[in-house]
Design a protein that fits this description.
- The complex is a heterodimer of chains A (about 190) and B (about 190).
- With about 190 residues, chain A is of the alpha/beta class.
- Chain A is built from seven helices and seven strands.
- In chain A, strand 3, helix 1 and strand 4 form a beta-alpha-beta unit.
- The two termini of chain A are about 20 Å apart.
- By secondary structure, chain B is of the alpha/beta class.
- Chain B starts with 9 loop residues before the first strand and ends in an 8-residue tail after the last strand.
- The chains are: A alpha/beta (about 190), B alpha/beta (about 190).
- The interface between A and B is medium-sized, with 29 and 30 residues.
């Protein structure tokens, strides 16, 4: 897992109407990440774009609610990870909500930092699985149209398989740290 | 290649008529030493009966959709039934992995039969299903188990070929014939 993804700083959006709380979260995260803050739902949607990696989202917000902001983010179809950080105790209405994690306030500095780390790890794993699928699709295509002898002689085919092996090693390191709930989040993305 | 049984630590795509697929997979499930897991079997009651008839001694966990065709009247001893939202691939994935790990790190389930793979492909993208097979296969290998993913003939060959990539074998079944087991390239570092 990396705090830096592909050379650019990870961007985290905090959406919280209690300004002191939003700023506190921001101070915890600012050492590691580029932090944006929004104090209501409409402002959050105005700030939101595809370059954001993680959103920490309160549910009770003036204007557009946190649940509505979440829907809009999911409708945008980006890879952004979203965690609800709310005083609202989860109820059955969370069924069907597209968040990746949920923390009930109050939350500690460590909990917030761990949460963002975990969400970024999910992103890495999801991206790795996407690349794995792409490589498999290419290999399957070649296997369909080439003979075994042609495949054995091909440097390109060998390179594809080597890339897959390397990727698989990377994914193996990550998967051991994941829970079944994490797996659900990764499967929802594809 | 002709093999009677798949060895521990391996995964396979199993293709063929429903009856042969079911028989082949249940035969492997019945060799479980710790726990066997059947995911979305079309006939849960029949699955339990045949598992027992084949000599299955280990506890059996059934993950079934909400409205299975043949629901067991009651859970027989050693059988645990888990209801899962079959329409949602992430829900199936979470429940399956959760079930595989349920006994704790020292004693995980060692036989997995994903019976409803074709149905999942009707409801989810190929990439989602690929991810599921990849993740489950990693787990199965880690615990030295056997993972079987059963596919009917309605799936395009191209899709089957993609889904095979992270697996060890492709098993083709036909009535009154021995299983044809083809070794796949598998993942390079799986040997």
């Amino acid at each position: 897992m990396t705090d830096e993804q592909e050379g650019s700083r990870v961007r985290v959006l905090i959406v919280e109407d209690e300004r002191s709380l939003a700023d506190l979260y921001g101070s915890w995260l600012a050492e590691r990440y580029e932090v944006e803050t929004a104090y209501d739902g409409e402002s959050a949607l105005a700030v939101y774009d595809e370059t954001l990696d993680v959103v920490l989202l309160d549910r009770r917000l003036p204007g557009a609610s946190g649940d509505r902001v979440l829907e809009r983010i999911r409708d945008a179809g980006t890879d952004c990870r979203v965690a609800m950080v709310s005083a609202v105790t989860p109820d059955f209405d969370i069924y069907g909500m597209g968040f990746d994690d949920y923390l009930v306030k109050p939350v500690s500095r460590e909990e917030v930092l761990d949460l963002v780390e975990r969400l970024l790890r999910l992103n890495d794993y999801g991206e790795g699985l996407r690349r794995h699928f792409t490589l498999s699709s290419k290999l399957a295509l070649l296997q369909e149209h080439k003979t075994e002898a042609e495949l054995e002689d091909s440097e390109e085919y060998a390179a594809l398989r080597a890339e897959m092996a390397e990727l698989d090693r990377e994914l193996t390191e990550t998967v051991g740290e994941m829970s079944s709930a994490d797996i659900g989040a990764v499967l929802r993305d594809a | 290649m002709q093999l009677e049984e798949l060895e521990a630590g391996s995964t396979a795509l199993v293709v063929g008529p429903r009856r042969e697929r079911r028989s082949f997979c249940l035969r492997h499930l019945a060799t479980a030493g710790r726990t066997a897991v059947a995911v979305l079997p079309s006939d849960p009651a029949g699955t339990v009966g045949e598992y027992s008839r084949l000599g299955g001694k280990a506890p059996l966990t059934l993950l079934q959709g909400e409205e299975p065709a043949g629901e067991p009247a009651e859970e027989p001893p050693g059988v645990h039934v888990v209801d899962v939202t079959a329409d949602s691939l992430p829900a199936v994935g979470e429940a399956t992995l959760g079930t595989l790990e349920a006994d704790g790190p020292g004693d995980p389930a060692d036989r997995l039969w994903l019976a409803g793979l074709s149905e999942l492909l009707e409801r989810a993208s190929v990439q989602q299903v690929y991810r599921l097979l990849y993740i489950l296969s990693k787990h199965v290998r880690e615990v030295d188990g056997v993972g079987l993913y059963a596919l009917d003939g309605s799936v395009e060959p191209k899709t089957a070929r993609i889904l095979c990539q992270p697996l060890d074998y492709e098993v083709t079944l036909a009535p009154e014939s021995a299983p044809e087991i083809r070794t796949l390239a598998g993942l390079p570092d799986d040997g």
